[in-house]
Amino acid sequence: MITHAERMQKKKEVVDRKIAAAQVERGVLVVNTGNGKGKSTAAFGVVARALGHGMRVAVVQFVKGRSDGGEEAFFRTQPGVAWHVGGAGFTWETQDKERDAAAAWLAWKVACEHLRDPGVGLVVLDEMTYAFKYGWLDVAAVLAVLRCRPAEQHVIVTGRAAPQALRDAADTVSDIAMEKHAFQAGVKAMPGLEW
Amino acid sequence: MITHAERMQKKKEVVDRKIAAAQVERGVLVVNTGNGKGKSTAAFGVVARALGHGMRVAVVQFVKGRSDGGEEAFFRTQPGVAWHVGGAGFTWETQDKERDAAAAWLAWKVACEHLRDPGVGLVVLDEMTYAFKYGWLDVAAVLAVLRCRPAEQHVIVTGRAAPQALRDAADTVSDIAMEKHAFQAGVKAMPGLEW
Fold this sequence. Notes:
Chains A, B: GO terms for molecular function: corrinoid adenosyltransferase activity. 2 copies of one chain form a homodimer. The first copy, chain A, has about 200 residues and is an alpha/beta fold.
């Protein structure tokens, strides 16, 4: 009979072999997509992680629903964080396509500055996928810039319905499905949890 | 022909109606599960969000792989955060079932203190699902305590393979699928991104 210790020893060997095989060190392109909760917050969690390693971080938000979000209030006070809000709001709030497109373009110009700065270890392009969905930005042009970024720089793109070209270019893609949501049961978007 | 502004106006009405219908205010139980990246980091992002609203936060980690993680280094320096590391390590590292079970139990005792403190707005039970998987903790007993927590307190449980009883009890469940991972392409776990 195989004991617990033997089973775990075998598992440890498998894990150790995989770790030994992964030796490339470079910046990683991550995409957090899907309809579930956690795409942006997972990126913000990595912001905290990167700051814990003394890295400089830039966050560019392409779509902005409210100006009193907790993460913005918190991270703006942290040294090493550049936080930019580029979007004019959700497009069904503004109902002005030209203004939204111009706002996305301005956000992208800010992002480009960070994407050529080797001193920035992590760039978060929050809710950027909407800019592709609504045709505000061209995915091929964005990918060309991402490929030219400093070799050690990590980038996280968040938002629903990431285009296939972006998924193909990414190193890591997480697809977050919503199994259920408190909102469906009539619970209001709660401060400190949802915003 | 329907214009962009008309289409967006209609979408705005639908969204506004849904928001108007969700009026319950209370603490929410969130479960971040699945095999993809972002379960813990999404919880850590919510930690930042909650701190931005001036809330006190407790994080209890049930499984601990390394002691030099960026999120721990970062959040330990933040006022309002209690950070506890309860686990002894991944079980295939320790190969000692009794020690792991005892460590999980100690972590749970610490969690219980926060789960009865109305001054704590958010409790993160990080990687807690492994404690159920390996039989270190009983899910029914844990759910009983979660149901008795202060009414305004949010709880986030993370980890692979959340048991069905936990999913049923949760208000919000996000299932994070791994579409691909840089590790598969031989990229090392990078500081500031993976730990």
